[in-house]
Amino acid sequence: MTPLYITHFQLDRAPMSKEIPDAELWTPPSKEALVDDLVGAVEEHRSALLVGEPGVGKTCVLRALRHRLPEARFRLTYCHNATLGRRDFYRQLCVALNLSPSATAAALFHAVSLHVQELGREHAHPVFLLDEAHLLHQDTLDHLHILLNYEWDSRALLSLVLVGLPELADRLSLRRNRSLYSRLHVRRRIAPLTPGDTSDYLRYRLERAACTREIFRPDAVAMLHEAAGGALRAIDRLATAALDEAAVHKRDHVERDIVRRVLALDAEHREF
User: Fold this and answer.
1) pLDDT at residue 100, rounded to an integer
2) 264/238 same-domain check
3) CA distance 133 to 82
4) What is the DSSP letter of 1?
5) Is residue 20 part of a domain?
6) pLDDT tier at 25, thresholds 50, 70, 90
7) How deeply is 268 buried, as exposed, middle or buried, from its count of CB atoms within 10 A (0-12, 13-18, 19+)?
8) Edge to edge, what strands does the sheet with 159-164 contain?
9) Which domain holds residue 243?
10) Are 199 and 230 a contacting pair, CB within 8 Å?
11) Half-sphere exposure of residue 134: CA atoms within 13 angstroms, side-chain side
12) Are 180 and 233 part of one and the same domain?
């Protein structure tokens, strides 16, 4: 069933949907430098760390990175189930790489290592993107630096990009993780959107949905931004609710009172 706000505002799709091609992802100017840094790190066969609060766009940055890296020169493997012990982690990695999983952690690690070296001979640099990495078991963290060690640590055949919440950086800075941390040459923290970013983001998303006019009033945008704390995921949720609320009340614009009503309802639901 088509949501009421789509017909009311004459849109051709849900503007805040996550179903958007990599090439059409919106990246604010404040995040372009971040994507450039990650692309530069991978192109130089280095590893990286990216942390940020929930919903600020970490996965969007990874998708932008994927879009920027030529498929002919790089092989990207994305893993997001980080709540596994070392053996199951490498088993998951083998499955993602289309390798036959073995029974032991040592055999799994050996299979992944051989695959990385084979890709190096084919001049295709492998990149492992480990999302939700703050959930990695310590025994996996203890071992990851070994995965980066090839030919007596003389060749950079693999890039790791660890992505997670800010506590990941705290864990990696501990003495027992110093071998891995020292190999993460690029370390970045993704910040929330600025108020200007939020305004541009809403405009861009609505334009993609065939909207040719401004629907959100500036003071409504400011209230949305403050309530969302600059987090994309929260902006998507609250903006969609505001569009729906405006449509129910047959309003041509989303104004401050609409957003205030949405925020009040949201606060009520959080109490349950």
Assistant:
1) 76
2) yes
3) 6
4) -
5) no
6) confident
7) exposed
8) 74-79, 125-130, 159-164, 48-51, 186-189
9) 4-12+193-270
10) no
11) 13
12) no
Q: pTM for the complete prediction?
A: 0.84
Residue 256 lies in a domain: yes
Positive or negative, the CA dihedral 9, 12, 16, 22 is negative
pLDDT of 270 reads: 65
What does the pLDDT average to over 13-34? 86
User: What's the pLDDT at 30?
Assistant: 74
Last residue of a domain, one of 157, 189, 221: 189
Q: Do 127 and 119 form a contact (C-beta atoms < 8 A)?
A: no
Q: Give yes or no for a contact between 44 and 36, defined as CB atoms under 8 angstroms apart.
A: no
| Mean pLDDT, residues 143-149 taken together | 81
Q: Which residues contact 85 (CB under 8 A, 6 or more apart)?
A: 137, 139, 140
- Nearest of 76, 185, 67, 184 to residue 124 by alpha carbon: 76
Q: Over the range 227-258, which residues count as b (16 or more CB within 10 Å of their CB) and which as e?
A: bbebbbbbbbbbbbbbbbbbbeeebeebbeeb
Instruction: For residue 231, give the DSSP letter.
Output: -
Burial zone of 1 (CB within 10 Å; 0-12 exposed, 13-18 middle, 19+ buried): exposed
Smallest CA-to-CA distance from 247 within 72, 1, 2, 6 is with 6
Question: What six digits make up the tokens of 222?
Answer: 């400011």
Average pLDDT over all residues of the chain: 88
DSSP tag of 69? S
Beta partners for 125? 74
Instruction: For residue 188, give the nearest of 28, 29, 37 by alpha carbon.
Output: 37
Token duo for residue 258: 């609409």
Token couple for 36? 């450039």
Q: Among 33-37, 123-127, 217-221, where is mean pLDDT lowest?
A: 123-127
Amino acid letter at 153? D
Q: 23-37, 53-67, 206-220: which has the minimum mean pLDDT?
A: 23-37
pLDDT at position 155: 61
The identity of residue 112, as a single letter, is: V
